[in-house]
Amino acid sequence: DGMVKTCNKFHLVKTTTTCASIESYYTLPLATFYKWNPAVGTNCQSLLASYYVCVGVIGWEPTPTDPGNGIATPSPIQSGMVKTCNKFHLVKSTTTCASIESYYTLPLATFYKWNPAMGTKCQALQTNTYVCVSIIGWKPTPTDPGNGISTPTPIQSGMTKSCKKFHLVKTTTTCASTQEYYSITFANLYKWNPPIGSKCTTLWAQYYVCCCFIMRLWGCILGSSWLCSFPSLARLWLSNVAN
User: Is 175 helix (H, G, I), strand (E, B) or coil?
Assistant: First the structure.
């Protein structure tokens, strides 16, 4: 009872909803939320599950959060995010903490520290909210598999540690086109990149995959990078050798 009459946006309260989570999600000051929804009380003591509350009125716009570092924080975010964040990621239905870890080369412990509302096992990662993936002064550490070749980012976790050459997957890339371009079999492509799946169902755009494996192709055995860099020439060379 008593909800503001000019409400134009509503939120269905769940058993896990709190006034603080609504405040964070909608960048909505608690004082304003209580004013629009007087029935919840002034201390959120009467927020009832399975009821709708008002989270927006005609003419009202949330104020972007400025943490004081000159970088506006988008909304919605989960409460407790680090104040020095300078890069944000919008969580989608397919997003996982592991995919964020892989994409940004961001250790999970660090990610959880910057976004404590996630929990320590990613149990509270909320779709359609922003999370922090970088803070001022922080730089991801390039992966060095120990073979003298730096691994670019992002990659899907589980890639072989002995990769010599990488390919950035585009929206038009398929496993078949990658196989043809680098003259490799799908068995090898999958062996080097198990996260793509045995039927290539999880080949992610804007991620790097391994397409040349040390001690597998003749060019890599010889330590000659041109065979990995120019697969068409490699095919011709191997054809001549075979003949």
Answer: helix
Q: List residues bridging with 77 in a β-sheet.
A: 130
pTM, entire model: 0.45
163 phi and psi, to 5 degrees?
Answer: -75, 140
- Structural domains of the chain, ranges and CATH numbers in brackets: 7-57 (3.10.350.10), 64-140 (3.10.350.10), 163-242 (3.10.350.10)
Q: pLDDT digit string (tens) for 150-186?
A: 778 788 878 888 888 899 998 899 999 999 888 889 9
Positive or negative: CA dihedral 188, 101, 93, 136: negative
CA dist., res. 225 & res. 113, Å (int): 41
Q: Which of left, alpha, beta for 222 (phi over 0: left; psi -120 to 50: alpha)?
A: alpha
Q: Read off the amino acid at residue 219.
A: G
